[in-house]
Amino acid sequence: MYSLVSREIEREFLPLCRRENLGAIGYSPLGAGFLSGKYLDSIPKGSRFDVIPAHVDLFFGERNFALVRKLHDLAERTGIPMVKLAMAWALRNPDLTAILIGARTVQHIDNALEALHLEFPEEYFQEMNEWSKPD
Questions:
Q1: Structural domain span for residue 33
Q2: C-alpha to C-alpha distance for 17 and 19, rounded to whole angstroms
Q3: Angle formed by the axes of helices 122-132 and 82-91, to 10°?
Q4: Can you give the pTM of this predicted structure?
Q5: By the 8 A CB rule, do 33 and 17 touch?
Q6: How far apart (Å, rounded) are the C-alpha atoms in residues 37 and 54?
Q7: Has residue 135 got a pLDDT over 70?
């Protein structure tokens, strides 16, 4: 798993892959949809966290909600949707060979393709990195 709210693989796994010249594939760049912002007020009926409530414990914490609010603010400032910012950030990691997006709709695929081709200034990347550095 690799996203703004799940960066643990940066500690040991990605450096190992880099040393051994291995590819690495991350998945869930939106943190199971958490980074879409739709969970700030409640858990929508039929959503992933409604259907699989065990995932709530992985993502629903004050640190992660603060990060989502910062992502929302950046989206407001730039006019770039939160999902595209979050995916573009993950796609920018040179240690990842690919990212699995888990698309369930054509719109999810479109968002990923748009994020791949998004003009994503270094300043956005650095700002987002600062919010979510692993402890």
A1: 8-126
A2: 6
A3: 90
A4: 0.89
A5: no
A6: 19
A7: no
90 touches 26 (CB < 8 A): yes
User: For residue 31, is it left (φ>0), alpha (ψ between -120 and 50) or beta?
Assistant: left
Q: Locate tokens 């690919």: which residue?
A: 98
Backbone angles phi, psi at 26, to 5 degrees: -90, 160
Q: What does the chain come to in residues?
A: 135
Is residue 134 a part of any domain in this protein? no
The total number of structural domains in the chain stands at 1
pLDDT tens digits, 114-133: 998 988 889 999 999 999 88
Cα separation of 100 and 74, whole Å? Answer: 24
φ, ψ of residue 2 in degrees (nearest 5):
-145, 120
Instruction: Note the helical H segments in 2-133.
Output: 13-19, 48-51, 56-59, 62-78, 82-91, 106-116, 122-132
Q: Which CATH number goes with the domain that contains 15?
A: 3.20.20.100
Contacts of 50 by beta carbon, 8 Å cutoff, 6+ apart? 43, 44
